[in-house]
Design goal:
Rossmann fold; transferase activity; 6-stranded parallel β-sheet; 14 helices
């Protein structure tokens, strides 16, 4: 009989992470209890953290078991606990708070020999407390290089988690190399191929002034090379540069340019209406530890959309030779975009992306979980 899952991940919903893509497929054969984010740092006294804390404190602890839930939604728990506890006392208190909240849910669900899956190192204190039969650590990021994280605390918890985990899943070769090879499997990100390759109508707010469009979607964070983008957009006034996502860094240098448009965040299901209809997809990353360890979800989504991809250099691109125009500066990016302006849909690129569908990733994952 297939074992059930207790999953510690980010907050369910919004832009889906790799963990959510995988769990949506795994839950067809097993029960899943999903615990929303328990945090990777202590909250601070600024508006974003205050708003997030309020939402968590006022959220239901879990859905009403008598109220039907969407088929694609697991049983969700909204935890009330201490984020990223440091001292032994704080850790014990946080563990006890979570145990009290999870105990009735796990009793109601009657899980069969559950596997404890965590994508967050801070959940290591729950190992051995929930009656699990095995412990899986899914590592999708270099937490030591991730912005907005209590690095010392998270690094210590990750070391403990690696020691205790029965199976470690790493999203990139860079990450996999850090863990014991005997218990580690490489599980690169996949793609919801049908959603991104099936023709989608053009988004009504996508600029349509006759200029070719270079587009990007995702968070405009510390790993985005704003200076490179500003210089490239200035050199190509006959191009339009469109950004779909939430800016969390200073973008004033780009906002001053007439040919740059910021559209704000959009639901994940609407992204093909943008990426299929611009002339080039951008991956303008800085060269830092986080990017060297990353395997960005949007890379395969861009490929499935079939538009040329222009990217700065990072290791994960080596898995897709010839599929991406790799640039090393402004001149390279300008030249790559000019070539992309006359390029039609790239069928070979889409065919390559189809080999990495999330369904294939989930099938491989099923084999590893059953062998634990």
């Amino acid at each position: 009989m297939t074992r059930d899952l207790i999953v510690f991940g980010e907050d369910w919903g919004g832009l889906p992470s790799s963990t959510q893509h995988l769990i949506r497929r795994l839950q067809h054969q097993r029960k899943v209890v999903w615990v929303n984010s328990i945090g990777l740092r202590r909250p601070q006294l600024h508006w974003r953290d205050i708003k997030r804390a309020f939402c968590k404190l006022t959220a239901r602890r879990s859905p009403n078991p008598n109220q039907p839930q969407p088929e694609s939604t697991p049983r969700i728990v909204h935890p009330r606990t201490l984020p990223a506890p440091r001292s032994a006392l704080e850790r014990r208190l946080a563990r006890e708070l979570l145990q009290r909240q999870l105990a009735p849910v796990l009793h109601q669900e009657r899980l069969h020999r559950p596997i404890l899956w965590t994508s967050l190192p801070t959940a290591v204190d729950m190992a051995g407390c929930l009656g699990e039969s095995a412990l899986v650590y899914y590592c999708g990021d270099d937490f030591n290089a991730l912005a907005g994280v209590d690095h010392d605390t998270v690094s210590q918890r990750e070391q403990e988690l690696v020691q205790r985990a029965d199976l470690i899943l790493a999203a990139s070769e860079n990450l996999a190399a850090r863990f014991p090879s005997a218990r580690t499997q490489l599980l690169p990100h996949g793609v919801d191929y049908h959603s991104f390759a099936s023709p989608a109508p053009r988004a009504p707010d996508l600029p349509n002034d006759g200029r070719p469009i270079a587009g990007f979607y995702g968070s405009l964070s510390q790993w985005i090379d704003i200076e490179l983008l500003q210089q490239t957009a200035s050199a190509l006034p006959h191009w339009h540069f469109v950004f779909v996502g939430q800016p969390v860094v200073d973008i004033s240098a780009l906002q001053r340019l007439e040919n740059v448009t910021f559209l704000g965040p959009r639901p994940h299901g609407e992204l093909p209406s943008y990426s299929q209809h611009w002339q080039a997809s951008l991956l303008p990353f800085r060269d830092n530890a986080q990017i060297r360890a990353c395997n960005p979800l949007k890379l395969l989504e861009y490929m499935a959309a079939g538009r040329p991809i222009v990217s700065t250099r990072f290791p994960a691109l080596s898995a897709y030779p010839g599929a991406v125009s790799v640039v090393d500066g402004v001149d390279d990016m300008v030249a790559a975009l000019q070539r992309a302006a006359s390029t039609t849909t790239l069928d070979s690129q889409q065919q390559l992306a189809s080999q990495h569908d999330w369904d294939r990733r989930a099938d491989q994952l099923e084999q590893w979980l059953e062998s634990l």
